[in-house]
Amino acid sequence: FTVSWAVPEMFLFAPGTELWRAEKLEPHGFEPHSPVLKDGAGDHQTFEVTLERRANRHLRRVGEPRGSGPWVVQLYNDDTTPFPTVIFALRRVLDVNERTAFEYASLVHSAGIASVRYCRSEWGANRIAARIRAIARRDSFPLTVCVERRL
Questions:
Q1: SS (H, E, C) 4-64
Q2: Domain tally for the chain?
Q3: Bridge pairing between strands 71-76 and 145-149
Q4: Which of 3, 8, 22, 117 could staple 73 via S-S, CB 3.0–4.6 A?
Q5: How far is it, in rounded angstroms, from Cα 33 to Cα 115?
Q6: Is residue 16 part of a domain?
Q7: The whole model's pTM is what?
Q8: pLDDT digits 0-9 by tens, 60-69
């Protein structure tokens, strides 16, 4: 692990270069962390595109949404909410980059529904869902987000 300076008297641990290509970082002792969101929030590798898949033009989603736990935040497709609003809400609430937010929005658009975050507590999942809804409603769009317990 390497230590990077973030805030005075606060250090963030990031995986070393030998782990950058790892599909899952949790087995190596790296847990996603964010001072803003609870329950598995933080930056994490969500999508991985290998050179072979990129060369063959197969950009498929690998892995699962960040976080762990039995509660899942699901986003539903609708015909009125535009892509930029969905991408902005996902970037702001889930703390992901624009590419990952676009992948989620595309997945929701094509499949009709997508799981965007797993949480350890129902409270944390409801908080994330409420923040996504609030950003969409601020622009007067009826984005549907629900929380379910997975088995």
A1: EEEECCEEEEECCHHHCCCCCCHHHCCCCCCCCCCCCCCCCCCCCCCHHHHHCCCCCCCCC
A2: 2
A3: antiparallel
A4: 117
A5: 19
A6: yes
A7: 0.56
A8: 443 456 667 7
